[in-house]
TrEMBL record:
Signal sequence annotation: 1-26
Protein name, as recorded: GDSL esterase/lipase
InterPro entries associated with the record: GDSL, SGNH_hydro_sf, SGNH_plant_lipase-like
UniProt organism field: Eruca vesicaria subsp. sativa
One Gene Ontology molecular-function label: hydrolase activity
Length: 356
């Protein structure tokens, strides 16, 4: 127990010291947003916070009811009741949400002009518990293959394009499921962020001029973690580790931006946006006040069930709240459409930096 406390104390020191260093480094980041234009294509990489339908229907809950109940009114492969992060970012830049990669052969050429979504739910920068699904390196391989074909996008198309890179923590979930020693966890966080940096640099070298990468959301506030407090309190220990990830990510982005002029890489600060919405106690223009923001709308009726589960007779093994718009979280991992809308409302100043 004492060793755990010591490790945690060391960790908090590292976070504080790293944050101090970043405060110094960030003074060198370029600020030229006023002369930028909106991108006209969006390329997406990552996980279930960004996936709009890449996983085969037989493999994902996102293709089962009640997912998609708010939009488009039926399951669409999104891990929510409706629109997700990708959709709101596309809306902000004024384009249609990009077509999922696995649907590219069924989309008209005009639809492909808005970009392409390579994200797969459950994946990470490394292999995760969803081994058969492509990690981010493989997703970028798919992107490179599409570019190499020359049939859809030209180099000039990429000059006015934006990439969204989502990392919602599946690598860390896999680390825990593998029951690896916790003494290795801090080193593993650095490995994850180092790989994100490699991925960002590679996407840029392929020609994308503006790249937005998400900070890690407060994992300790996900309903999967707060269920033990009856959805009343976030797990501070989990959020402390998230802070280290985000501190290292900010440092990596500062480094990348110092290598590319003008500033190319932008962090979408999901961590603080989530907490702002979760902690909001009053109705404010732009985003919703959720009465119990940590309680999900769709939950299994027992601890062994989850949203969308049914028994052998087809009977539901889950319950759904009366109105998803009153909930920040849809299931134990993902926000509702209203939750994402509120997050992007908080991010509206941050989003100005995605202009090219």
């Amino acid at each position: 127990m004492e060793s755990v406390k010591l490790l945690f104390s060391i960790f908090l020191f590292l976070v504080s010291f790293s944050s101090f260093l970043l405060g110094v480094e960030s003074d060198h980041v370029h600020h030229d947003n006023l002369k930028r234009l909106r991108p006209n294509r969006l390329f997406v990489f990552g996980d279930s916070y960004a996936d709009t339908g890449n996983i085969r229907k037989s493999l994902a809950d996102s293709w089962k009811m009640p997912y998609g109940v708010s939009f488009p009114g039926k399951p669409s492969g999104r891990f929510s009741d409706g629109r997700i992060s990708t959709d709101f970012l596309a809306r902000y830049v004024g384009i249609k949400s990009p077509i999922p990669y696995t649907w590219k052969n069924y989309a008209g050429k005009e639809r492909l002009l808005y970009g392409m979504n390579y994200a797969y739910g459950g994946t990470g920068v490394f292999k995760t518990f969803n081994n058969p699904l492509p990690n981010m390196t493989t997703q970028i391989d798919y992107f490179q293959s599409v570019l190499s074909s020359g049939n859809i996008y030209s180099p000039s198309d990429l000059n006015s394009s934006l990439a969204l890179v989502s990392n919602a923590g599946n690598d860390y979930g896999t680390f825990i499921l593998q029951k690896r020693p916790m003494r290795e966890f801090l080193g593993f966080i650095k490995k994850v962020v180092d790989q994100i940096e490699v991925n960002l640099r590679r996407i840029h070298k392929l020609g994308v001029k503006k790249i937005a990468v998400t900070s890690l959301q407060p994992l300790g506030c996900l309903p999967s973690k707060t269920t033990y407090t009856s959805f009343k309190h976030c797990n501070a220990s989990d959020n402390a580790f998230v802070s280290l990830h985000n501190t290292l990510l900010r440092r990596a982005v500062v480094k990348l931006n110092n290598e590319t002029k003008p500033s190319t890489f932008v962090i979408l600060d999901l961590y603080n946006a989530f907490l702002t919405v979760i902690k909001n106690k009053k109705a404010e223009p732009g985003f919703t006040r959720f009465v119990n923001p940590l309680k999900p709308c769709c939950v299994g009726i027992t601890s062994n069930d989850s949203c969308s589960n049914v028994d052998e007779k087809g009977e539901k093994k889950y319950t759904v709240c009366e109105d998803p718009k009153t909930s920040f979280f849809w299931d134990v991992f993902h926000p509702t459409e209203e939750g994402w809308r509120s997050v992007y409302s908080v991010l509206r100043e941050n989003l100005k930096a995605v202009l090219i």
